[in-house]
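Input record (Table S2, row 1463):
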Amino acid sequence: MSVKITGNNRRLPTARSQTINRGKSIQFTFNGKTYTAYEGDTIASALAASGVTTFSRSFKYHRRRGLLCAAGNCPNCLVHAGDEPNVRSCVTPVSEGLKVRSQNAWPSLERDVMSLTQLVDRFLPAGFYYKAFMRPRALWPYYEEILRHAAGLGEVVPATKPGEFDKVYKHADVAVVGGGPAGLRAALAAANQGANVMLLDSEPALGGHLRYATHDIGGQPAYQYAAALAAEVAAHPRIDVMTNTTAFGCYKDLWLGAVSGDRLIKLRARALVVAAGAYEIPPVFENNDLPGVMLGSAAQRLVNLWGVRPGTTAVVVSANARGLHLARELEQAGITIAAVAELRDQPEAGLITAINAPALTGAAIVRANGSRHVESIVVRAGGQERKIACDLLALSTGYLPANELMLQAGGKVAWDEALHEFLPSSVPPGIFVAGEAAGAHTLADIEREGELAGIEAALKARYGDADAQARRDTLAAQTADARSRRVAWSAAEADNAAGKRDFACYCEDVTRKDIQQSIDEGYSSIELLKRYSTVSMGPCQGKMCNTALVQLCAAHTGQTVRDTGTTTARPPVRPVTMGALGGRLMEPVRLSPMHEWHVARGAKMMNAGLWKRPEHYGDPVAEVRAVREGVALIDISTLGKIHLHGPDVPVLLERLYTNRWRKLDVGRVRYGIMVNNEGVVMDDGVTAHLSDNFYYMTATSGGAAAVYEWIESWLQTGWLLNVHALDATELRAAMNLTGPFARQVLAKVTDGVDLSNEAFPYMHAREATVAGAPALLLRVGFTGELGYEIHVPAGYGLCVWEALMDAGREFGILPFGVEAQRVLRLEKGHIIVGQDTDGLTNPLEAGLDGLVKLDKDDFIGKTSLVLAGERAVEKRLVGFTMPDGTLPEEGNQIVRPGKGPLGLEIIGRITSTRYSPTLKQVIGLCWLPAALAEPGHDFTVRVRGELKTGRVAALPFYDPDETCLRA
Amino acid sequence: MLQLIRHGLNGKRPFPRMWREHELKDRYEVVIIGGGVHGLAAAYYLARDHGITDVAVLEKNYIGSGGSGRNTTIIRSNYLTPEGVLFYDESVKLYETLALELNFNLLFSQRGHLTLAHNDSSVRTMRWRAEVNQLQGVDSRLIWPDEIARLCPQLDLSDHPRYPILAALYHPPGGVIRHDAVVWGYARGADLRGVHIHQKTEVTGIDVTNSRVTGVRTTRGTIKTGVVLNATAGWATLISDMAGVRLPITTHPLQACVSESLKPFLNVIIVSGSLHVYVSQSDRGELVMGASVDPYTSYSLDSTLGFLEGLSGHLLELMPSLARVKILRQWAGLCDMTPDYSPIMGFTPVEGFLVDVGWGTYGFKAGPVSGKRMAELIATDRTPDLLAPFRLSRFEEGRLVGEKGAASVGH
Amino acid sequence: MLLLTCPNCGERNVAEFRFGGEAVKRPAPEDVNRATWADYLYLRRNTNGMQREWWYHTPCGCWFVAERHTRTQDVSHTAFWSPEG
Ligand SMILES: Cc1cc2nc3c(=O)[nH]c(=O)nc-3n(C[C@H](O)[C@H](O)[C@H](O)COP(=O)(O)OP(=O)(O)OC[C@H]3O[C@@H](n4cnc5c(N)ncnc54)[C@H](O)[C@@H]3O)c2cc1C
Ligand SMILES: [Zn+2]
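Output record (zinc ion complex):
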């Protein structure tokens, strides 16, 4: 079987189906060599057409693997194509210039050093790694590297481009998954009842298994019969056909995930028909993985879809009518049939006689022979073993119904002794399983059950009339006893003695003996067995191996297959790229109306929750100085802003904040903190009383959404207050004009209000016109200087900002950012919730006790604070300085001598610290035990590994008597 | 290793059984409910350290069928609170020698754990953690993009528009392990010492007389016992309700997924709190990935599409080159969440009814230390110092553990 | 549960909502002691069955009560809160 690169030397003279277009050639490479393909080829069909038989090396023993399923279900043809690892080459269209290479083989696919592991396989039973490499412990990391490099299939290409992934939403009355005869019938039946139907199929065309079959159906070849049916479906106005689309998940409430190339489709249906057919599965026998050993459907697909000759001399192993059809088709394609090994004693006589080859009935497969490729097969029939030469062994011995979508949705399956298949035993409401997925195998059964499922789905989606119901009842009655029976290969009955390199699991190279040994060790329930032996955990997701696993487990434990049960079906049905699942990141970025201005002025932007904010404009120290000595402007549009209307607002505020709110005159502003039920500080901010029944609340940028939700929750869930809350955060731009000259600057652009200190004092609010914009002015002082917060409708934000910057030019106005603000607030000793407090901080310890009025009526968190207040405060948030000028880092720990590996015990921590350009020293906030929290106390802080001394200082550091603030 | 060779040379000699099956006795000295890592480890240490072998472990399904067989196996000790760090550090140390002790390779892979900081407030929290860790002798430090790039070149460290990587908390001893192996190893160790492991045995009731436990009812019969340990994680409140003990726990599903197998390329564990994702590569080559708990309480083990979408989208933000890597399998487990993201261990108001619960999304790493210390508690009838911060009464006392701050994606 | 019915807006994808926890009644401050207050703060039924719970519909700002089965995720009923319960 040497591989000569000519291209297409294995093509049959004519393809039976129309998949490939011999008029158009495509060139691509595989392991560096150039191959020729035809349009319509998959990577694998083109390689097979050129005589390639080894596609990959197996996971553990690095055995040669050739095409097994040719339908995208097994691990054997995984390659690296373009940017993508682990590509199922048998279902991936080939494209011009595509670079394809094999995986997991070194130095080459043909000569793979790791295949030597086969020689020592008896030392490598399932789970061998649990029993080895432990001693000496120091060597384990080296052993581990070897194991790691031996494992793994494809490689990630570091430069992979994100790609053009996208997502779409779809809605359908009835979703039909699977475009074979059952799905086609179901789609038609449902659509004829009036339902809008979406039909999904992972193959490029409809028709299901008939698409690659040529046997006669009512006077025409199967594929033509299917094409006619498919055309009828495609022409139906209420059926939307999506080919090349794999439904990979059925989630709660019939929410389907499907993928088509790089597009994720999220489909919500009222009813779902699962008509996904069945996976043909291989029997377990010695050397069942040799290249040239393939599923009957694979041989059939090669011949009929792509016109590729899968071999010259074939043995067909059959346990069902399909196998016999296949033998006939292979003969017709010019392949010599050396023998048909029929597992049944009495196969369909008509089909047997139609084949020109000897048929052995009641046969059993003993082994395949060959080193690089199958050369012969040994079968036993009539008590006698026979060796038959062949280069193709086609296996048509059993199926696994593809009903995973139903299982994912909570359905159950049970083993059917007659069919040797797991069939639906409990189907979730809204789902209907039809065709081979439900165990039907003759075309008549499949089509009838398809129609039945379609009608049921339409009825479920509330279409159809009495006639439909009558039709449903008729069909259902026919179905009940019409199932045709057939036999499949059975592990229980198969010869147990052989047991060498007979793989139950191709993905993980697990043999029958591995499974038996695992059971003997105690892993006797199916889930434990799966986890220990790793059967079904590889790329095939159990499609090829699960049935054998269960059968072998049952046989070895002496249980019935039914009692043994099967493993849980987990999404996705087929692996899906993270690119398709992730799509493009749709996370909003929130920008203030003045954003472009900041960017144009060279601001260094930082993330603040979803917002972007200027951190500084180049020189934060100058910005601080401008606030303290001149005037400066900061964008605070990110602040939470909530409108509160209604007569009960004072009651609401009284309950939301820990301090008193009943008496707040119109025109006044008050600062407050909110705690949660546990008494933990959750937010702080100011609220202004603007007019009768109207208050304006601000919350921190980070807390805005939570505060609004919080208010709504109390309003709507029991307080029944007459208050209407509106989240105005994005409706308004806001800026803080602050510094000794703030009033002069503001006066230049403001009408309608007297800004003098007497008329508009600290902690008051006024409405005015600023630069022509209706504005709300709050005289508050986070920075510690005279300052006005100016809130205007968002659309005016930029123009007001620019007007203020213009007006301030003569005073040397600067814009300032978050960094300067942090310094300024620290100089004033203001806390930042979430930075200086944590998830357990109550206000009594955070130095906010003056704002907690435990004697007022109920407020949120009151009980918790009362209980906390019964105990002496144990720790406090205090100010500090560093006498030696060391600048600690936020997060540094305050320690004292104690136990612990460094001889130190943690007693506190630094939450905020900066060098203050105003005070020319390091200042900050820290947590300390209450006993050490008096100003003047020294403590030890670990800074970059060294112990330094800090000193507790009284707060605030700057302007303690508030002359600047109230100027 | 020798065992393998002997077996290989003499194919007929079977490996010994890992654990046996037993009739359910009508009396046990100690009954442990839950055959996860916590229950089995407690049984193992009871037998090994205290000679208490008349112990039954009752498991309604198969061992490891709960969180212990579903978790993403991150083991680390870089917690935020000193009490947390001390506790988990003992567990990491036990894990380091556990394979030898159990003579079962647990594939413990201490490849280093990186928690990414995407904004200045997480940088601050990371530093806080690093400082606390160092003071407890735990290897943990803040590192910057150049070092992050060396440890994990796959990360997009560019001036990324949405979630730039500013720094990371690096914890070299952090690692991953083969979870099932831990469960099986403890089970075998317990079985060898005489503990009865009863699979497919569901507890249906607990008998309490005068505030004392007297027995346990199961689907296979009733057991008399004076000591019951509830180690049922996601089902913890259902069990404690049977004893009339209420626990401050809500059950949330937590989902995870794996990719197809890939050649080794990711050498560290990456966690991003802001993006709610984490990823490691197992020795089998699969990427093991997860996110935060589902946002509502539930006992459902259903997977969701939203999880896959969110996880993939966020992970690709960090590592765009994974766009063509495929998800192979997704699943969910149940997490017993407490208000302070810390476990509940020890005595309850019902005498003889003990709990080892509240393991949330982070309990696998604690299996050894909890097992060992709960065994000590049972044997001595007193609370070991290491467990004291995690007592049930802390909620009423208003003395919660402060792990909340660091628990955003806290596995 | 993929869909939840907001009493304001109708059936919407659950991604639009935020879970607000099991519905519990806030005790009046005068009726509590340390133990009963801790119960209110921390103890939930955490039932494996039908649960009365709060949800918040972010787009419209509506808080409402839902009856949901915590294992099957089936939601039997949603409604605005009313003092009658
Ligand atoms: C997806 C996911 C990822 C996680 N990732 C991590 C991680 O990276 N690191 C980490 O440290 N932790 C992680 N965890 C958390 C961790 O899995 C758990 O905290 C831990 O496994 C709990 O162990 P356990 O033994 O207490 O409980 P489980 O392992 O859950 O065992 C409890 C057992 O009790 C049994 N049981 C319940 N009810 C009954 C009954 N009535 N009768 C008898 N038996 C009963 C159950 O069947 C179950 O087997 C993760 C969890 C999940 C779900
Ligand atoms: Zn709404």
